[in-house]
Amino acid sequence: MHPGAFSVIIVILVFYFVLSFVFCILYYKFIIMKTINKILSVLLNSLKKVLNIIWIISLKNIFCWLCSAWKWAWSKTTVDEKAAEVAKETIDRAKAVGKELKDVADAIGEVGNQIGDIPDALAGKKRKGRKPKTYKNNGAEKKKK
To answer: What is the pTM of this model?
Structure first.
């Protein structure tokens, strides 16, 4: 064997070991980075969920505070209650006025009917009274006495 061949074999073996060491380092670095990325993504997703829950709770609290403040402000005023009472009273009065106007119209109609009897009374004629009702019985009309 040639004395230089041994050194070439050693160089090739060293080069092989160096390359395999570099590839191992790169492979493990890739695996480590992939694991770190998974861990970070899990942590970030968990953090997002926690922050989302905190945000939702704070929004609910803000909404509840606004609702309670609104109710408190309306409890200090009586404007809406007075307005409702006035509206109800107005409606009731309008219905009562409508009924009275109908009664007045009926009374005025009756007075108009009775005015026609005054000239007859002045002339000395008898009161007419009610006209007798007629009933139909087998095609013949009968007067009720």
So the answer is: 0.32
